[in-house]
Amino acid sequence: NAGVTQTPKFQVLKTGQSMTLQCAQDMNHEYMSWYRQDPGMGLRLIHYSVGAGITDQGEVPNGYNVSRSTTEDFPLRLLSAAPSQTSVYFCASSPTTGATYGYTFGSGTRLTVV
Amino acid sequence: EDQVTQSPEALRLQEGESSSLNCSYTVSGLRGLFWYRQDPGKGPEFLFTLYSAGEEKEKERLKATLTKKESFLHITAPKPEDSATYLCAVQDPGTYKYIFGTGTRLKVLA
């Protein structure tokens, strides 16, 4: 089992560029989320999905888009990168929306916008 | 508004020196309180879920407890390999969103 796979691990973007952070899980998990982690701010939820075809906004969704066309994949798109989006991004999944299980996290994507 | 506050922000312990980390929360109807461990450069790793006041869970040198307003992560006789950031989270019952605290950075000195 690969778990949650995020690519790329590192990325440098210029202001205004767009890109997609990839996230794939092979555990047949229904629930997937994207978080960003900044020093002193903790993990903040960007977008989440409770199943294929269903997505919703978290607390910091501006500047990001998501889609969930399959159970396995949950890509995060940066529409027009800004320096404020410099962060470490984590994708996470859980079997269901219930509280029984914690998240399985990916290893993260470190993004720098210059 | 749901909130999770962790204290202290950072903690340095000598090997074998037991201590506790605190996670206080406000949420309308707790579905679960979660503890995670995060090593530098890695994603958080799930440790425990607690559901109701009075519940306790243990894993090696770690024991998590829960009251109606807070949770404690007790570390007994820690070793240097316990050094990490420990994160606490709660799940909002209406939206299924997880709300994380900012974590406690633990350093255990040999």
Write out key terms for the chains shown.
heterodimer; A: 114 residues; mainly beta; 7-stranded mixed sheet; 4-stranded antiparallel sheet; 11 strands; B: 110 residues; 6-stranded mixed sheet; 5-stranded antiparallel sheet; 0% helix
Characterization of the model:
The complex is a heterodimer of chains A (114) and B (110). In chain A, the strands form 2 sheets. In chain A, strands 2, 4, 5, 6, 9, 10 and 11 form a 7-stranded mixed β-sheet that branches. A 4-stranded antiparallel β-sheet of chain A has the order 1-3-8-7, with no helix packed on it. Helix content of chain A is 0%, strand content 51%. Chain A is an all-beta fold and 114 residues long. The termini of chain A are far apart. Chain B is mostly beta strands. Chain B contains no helices and 11 strands. In chain B, the strands form 2 sheets. In chain B, strands 2, 4, 5, 9, 10 and 11 form a 6-stranded mixed β-sheet that branches. A 5-stranded antiparallel β-sheet of chain B has the order 1-3-8-7-6, with no helix packed on it. Chains A and B meet through strand 4, strand 5 and strand 10 of A and strand 5, strand 9 and strand 10 of B.
